[in-house]
Amino acid sequence: MQDEPNLSDVEIDDQKIRDNKELNIYEALVPVIILMAMLAYNIFFVEGQEWFGTYTNQIILLLGGLVAVVVGLFNKVKIPTMLSEIWENLKSVFIPIMILFLVGALAGTWLVSGVIPAMVYYGLQVLSPEIFLPASVIIAALISIATGSSWTTSATVGIALVGIGTALGISPGMIAGAVISGAYFGDKMSPLSDTTNLAPAMAGTDLFTHIRYMALTTVPTIVITLIVFAIISANIDPTGNADISNLLASIDNTFHITPWLFLVPIAVIVLILLKTKPLAALASGVLLAAIFAFIFQSNVLNSLSDSNIGAVVTSILTDTSIATDNEKLNDLFSSGGMQGMLWTIFLIICAMVFGGVMDGIGALARITKALLSVATTIFGLFASTVISCLGLNTIASDQYLAIVIPGKMFKKAYQDKDLAPENLSRTLEDSGTVTSVLIPWNTCGAYQSGVLNVDVSQYFAYAIFNWLSPFTTLLFAAFRIKIKMLTKK
User: Fold this and answer.
1) What are the residues whose beta carbons fall under 8 Å from the beta carbon of 300, sequence distance 6 or more?
2) pTM, rounded to two decimals
3) Which pLDDT belongs to residue 44?
């Protein structure tokens, strides 16, 4: 049996960074290059349809993990070491997976209880196409600031906004991009957010110093985002306007619409604000919606099944479609329940397998160190941090690792250049937190596309705040705008 190579573990808030001194940068990049090549082939030549069937991306991630295993074995990393890191990764996404199952159940029960139809019904009367996209950004931002969670925002008002906008004839990709832009702005700026607390902890600064300093890049970015969406909204052809009366009539004929239905989403948001565990808050939303379905939507339940209880259980577990006399609404008023979340969950699991092997063989640490070694200037240091965060969001498929690993690796380098720690914490958020949702196999990208039922490729260009944020932070670094130093020279 070959000896285990020189591996060292660094404990950071239950995260381990495994360093393998026998692995060189070229070997570390082999699995990444092969993974990117397979994904590119699937996108440009197979179009994600027939190569490996429905689960093409999942299989590609597993194949990339297999390549990483071969690289690890070549560098004397034992199989149990890799399996240990895979297990650690899988344990870290257990709660997100449970949340995804509950979001599927939430969507199903909110449909049959009339919550989503009520949101669409009243939203159509308030939100016109001319203001819809910037209004969606603001609404999502406010909810996300209040809850500290972009995930909760998408699972509540995000679903409703996509439904309302689709009925108005607006592209789902545009709507999802607006919701995600607002949700991640709020997530970044909220003291309740886990990533907003994690970034300053990794960099060595305090929470509110971090938030104030982050506002310098975040506020201009969201202002530009709002301006762009206002321009887009002003030029949208309001195809849905002429049909609003028919849509309202169809909803009213199918469901019992009442403002009392808003008690369900309000209750979920209040529970989150009271710092209730997300699983408990979402489960409460499912239970309350089920009760409201029995109270308000007996006709809908009777149309779905001979048993009202059976109809509610079906909405929680599997596909539910509610027929109306309007084709647009028939597409909108359907849900996959927990079953509809399986593709997303499998994607997350496969991404964690790939990321676990890459961490287990020391490839993540090696790639980050290589970036650090070329950061000879202040701008180079900021650029290396951004690239590191983007790379880890792509390779490790997890935004927390995209904050933790660069935060640990780059902390001393920022100190050596007399840069205040909030420079690092801001850059981690500007490039690590917000770009996670732009990677289809990242936990955030998989979650948002699954919940909003809009593919990442559809909303990528319209998630303006998310892809613009790294450029903003680099622009500030390049021109030394508001770059706080530890000492004055």
Assistant:
1) 112, 114, 254, 255, 293, 311, 322
2) 0.76
3) 67
